[in-house]
Write a structure and sequence with these properties.
This protein has 41 helices and 9 strands. By secondary structure, the protein is of the alpha+beta class. The two termini are about 70 Å apart. GO terms for molecular function: ATP binding; protein serine/threonine kinase activity.
């Protein structure tokens, strides 16, 4: 029977192909005869499908649909296992269209390794109404991950409330992947029994299950057992903890605060942060007062951790609540509130803190003074000046120290009067504050007051404080100190700082210059020291000589950190660059200390791809860096009209930048401000990196918008961790090189739309188009290289400049 069926089917198919049109009336008659043969025609139809065109495939699929039943199903199954892709597709379409076979036969096919699982799953999805949730679940557990996910998706589409008992009964199974799928399905049903079942999963050791449970609960209404959810604020997995924050806030349970106490006392900083995040959404002044009252009974370390979390993270609700608590009757609550405000540095608290300086508790009043100093608003100065009149010698040092930090010169005269006080601590703080407050108009007068106080003290501590204060003033304002500093540099001697030194002696400063025969420089420096007027570099004309040595040629440029002048060193008869630091940089004491520290290391970088830094100089009231003169243009001037550079040139520049930066990183220097404007190139193609040590003066954790108003780094090229004020290492420079490479090979930077803050936010988000999307002519490996260098996660970037250089060299090959 099979032989004759095959023969007849073969002849009819040949007849149809000979006619050439399956829709021709004669072809239709042949197709009807083919269908009447029954299942015996299926093998020949399957063979024909492998070479059939679209019209032929459609008519043969229709015949297969008519011929499918439980007996013919195995033939079709074998065709799916062995047939061509076109044959498999036709069988799948026929199975999806027919209802003349047992649906369970489909699921059984999933257990056969040789079967095309995606096609079978598509058929099951189209036939889902023929299955029960239990049928699908029974087969889902034995499938591989992809097939399992597809079956659970179908279960989710099929499930209704009648399926809930079956799903809930399986939520405790051993298969964690299946449990996650079940939790996700159950999340659709806002029922108490579902919520209760999902909450049992919150303590599961698998973080993915905990996270799935929290995701489900966040979509549901109704009461929650808030305790276990609050425990997840302390979860070691940050994604779980962050999701727990959302669920706790959404629940807004009245019992939340009592569970937050343990979270705020947790040793883990991230747990404490999570607790404060919840407080910032739900907490009131009474809530925070309750927390402070509870934790005051714990040991000091627990109290410190909890208050530290509230202070560091702050937030509007916390700050508003703590401001109210400054006036609380409970002394311990007031003390805790003051400590928190000392860390938040929120200007909204100024008026309340000024009131708190009069608190009857000395701790509250003194810490309020400290908090005002940390905030840095001069609105506090009048109130603090009133406190100078107090007879409480214990609190005066705190007030004086705060006035020195606030930097208002109105307080100089009252502080001078304190130099007559007998208390050593008050006198020392007054000396330190006066040194900080001295400006160019008052430097000489303040210096004389401090000198007199030190000379008449007969106390080593006060005399030492006076010496340091005078040195600090002279470092900023004395022109005669230049000669002494150069002498000290030549001899290698450090300025004497013993308590018994003569108060009138001019302190010497060690500059960062090499030793050598500099007699001529000393002579000219001593001659110029007599002129006390501060040098105004804006008035220099070509040919003017500064400090008897540096002849002004022209002004090259000006930036946030300084003004760049081209000079000629008349001693060695060579041109060099002098970069005079802007006043807002030079007057920042902490930045200057870091600046000098970084320059000491930057001078060690000697490489053809790095501009050489020579000295750090002081010239009649101005600080300047002297460095190598390199006639050149910036890399930025080559990237114009949004046109990419030729690839060989772009890659070569990238290699040169990496080479120079490798040397810098080996010396312990992170640039922090790599950008096209800091990459110089001469007419021969030699590339040099400039401005080491400038942005590097930034302190770890500083925000990018500093108190002096300039930006550390360039927003278009800054690494995300630098923007966020996190710890910066060599990988921040790698990110910047990645951005520069992106701009070179596409013609445009990855992020440039909007203001500086908008651009910085885009870097943190990391959603730039890939380089190959912008320039479709790029080789894919080079585009992938740039993407890796620009990874938001620094652990996913190249981990060294050498590694990035090697990748670029392979791209160039």
């Amino acid at each position: 029977m099979s032989f004759f069926s095959d023969l007849r089917a073969e002849r009819l198919i040949a007849e149809i192909r000979q006619i050439g049109d399956p829709l021709h009336p004669d072809s239709q008659k042949a197709l009807q005869k083919l269908a009447k043969i029954g299942p015996g025609a299926i093998p020949k139809i399957l063979d024909t499908l492998a070479v059939a065109d679209r019209k032929e495939t459609a008519v043969y699929t229709d015949i297969l649909t008519q011929l499918i039943d439980n007996k013919s199903f195995p033939i079709l199954a074998e065709g799916m296992a062995e047939g061509s892709p076109r044959t498999v597709q036709a069988i799948g379409q026929a199975l999806a269209a027919s209802r003349n076979y047992s649906a369970n036969l489909l699921i059984e096919l999933l257990g056969r390794a040789e079967m095309p699982k995606p096609t079978i799953l598509e058929v099951i999805a189209s036939q889902k109404g023929r299955f029960t949730v239990r049928d699908l679940l029974q087969h889902a557990y034995s499938q591989e991950a992809n097939e399992k996910a597809a079956l659970f998706k179908i279960v989710g589409e099929l499930a209704d409330e009648s399926a809930l008992p079956e799903l809930i009964s399986r939520i405790e199974g051993k298969d964690s992947t299946a449990r996650i799928h079940i939790i996700n399905i159950l999340a659709r049903f806002n029922r108490p029994e579902v919520s209760q079942a999902i909450q049992t999963q919150l303590r599961d050791p698998n973080k993915m299950i905990r996270q799935a449970a929290l995701n489900a609960l966040s979509k549901m209404d109704g009461p929650l057992n808030i305790g276990p959810i609050c425990q997840l604020l302390r979860d070691p997995d940050l994604e779980v903890a962050n999701r727990a924050i959302d669920v706790v806030v959404r629940a807004n349970d009245p019992d939340t605060m009592k569970y937050l106490i343990e979270v705020l006392k947790d040793e883990n900083e991230y747990a404490r942060r999570a607790g404060v995040e919840v407080l910032n959404h739900l907490g009131t002044a009474n809530d925070i007062k309750h927390l402070l009252q509870v934790i005051k009974d714990d040991d000091w370390w627990v109290r410190t951790r909890a208050a530290d979390a509230l202070g560091k993270i702050g937030g509007p609700r916390v700050v508003d609540a703590v401001i109210e608590l400054i006036r609380d009757e409970d002394e311990d609550v007031r003390r805790a509130a003051i400590e928190i405000l000392n860390q938040t540095k929120d200007e909204r608290a100024i008026n309340f803190l000024i009131e708190a300086t009069k608190d009857k508790d000395w701790w509250v009043s003194e810490r309020a003074v400290d908090a005002l100093a940390e905030i840095g608003s001069k609105k506090a100065v009048p109130a603090l000046m009133d406190l100078l009149k107090t007879d409480n010698a214990r609190s005066l040092p705190t007030v004086v120290r705060a006035l020195g930090k606030l930097g208002d010169t109105r307080v100089i005269e009252p502080l001078v009067q304190l130099l007559e006080r007998p208390e050593k601590e008050i006198k020392v703080e007054a000396i330190n504050a006066l040194a900080r407050l001295a400006d160019d108009k008052r430097a000489d007068a303040v210096r004389s007051y401090i000198q007199a106080a030190g000379s008449n003290a007969n106390d080593p501590t006060i005399e030492s404080a006076a010496v340091r204060a005078i040195e600090d003033i002279d470092l900023r304002y004395s022109s005669t100190a230049v000669a002494a500093a150069i002498k000290a540099s030549r001899t290698g001697a450090e300025p004497a700082r013993s308590p018994g030194r003569t108060m009138g002696a001019e302190p010497a400063r060690t500059l960062l210059i090499d030793r050598g025969d500099v007699d001529q420089v000393i002579k000219k420096a001593e001659e110029s020291a007599a002129a006390s007027a501060k040098l105004d570099i804006g008035t220099l004309k070509p040919g003017d000589v500064v400090e008897g040595r540096y002849k002004f040629i022209e002004k090259i440029g000006k930036g946030a950190f300084g003004t760049v002048l081209l000079m000629e060193d008349t001693v060695v008869e060579e041109r060099l660059i002098l970069k005079f630091l802007n006043p807002n940089v030079a007057q920042d004491e902490e930045m200057m200390k870091r600046f000098v520290h970084e320059l000491r290391y930057s001078r060690k970088i000697t490489h053809r791809n790095v501009i050489r830094i020579y000295d750090f100089l002081y010239m009649r009231g101005n600080y300047a860096i002297s460095m190598e003169y390199f006639p050149s243009h910036t890399l930025g001037s080559e990237i114009v009209n949004e046109k990419p550079l030729p690839l060989p040139r772009a890659i070569k520049y990238g290699i040169d930048i990496c080479t120079g930066m490798t040397i810098a990183h080996q010396a312990g220097i992170v640039h922090r401000d790599l950008k096209p404007a800091n990459i110089l190139i001469n007419n021969e193609g030699l590339l040099k990196i400039v401005d080491f040590g400038v942005a590097a003066a930034q302190k770890e954790g500083d925000t990018q918008l500093t108190k002096t108003g300039y930006v550390i780094g360039s927003p278009k090229y800054m690494a995300p961790e630098q923007i966020l004020g996190k710890k910066v290492d060599e990988r921040a420079d790698i990110y910047s090189v990645g951005v520069i490479l992106y701009e070179m090979v596409t013609g445009v930077p990855p992020y440039s739309r909007g203001d500086h803050m908008s651009v910085m936010y885009q870097h943190v988000q990391g959603k730039a188009k890939t380089a190959i999307e912008v320039n479709t002519q790029l080789p894919r490996p080079l585009s992938d290289l740039v993407t890796k260098a620009m990874s938001v996660d620094k652990a996913k970037r190249y981990q060294s400049m050498d590694e990035l250089r090697e990748a670029l060299e392979k791209a160039l090959a």
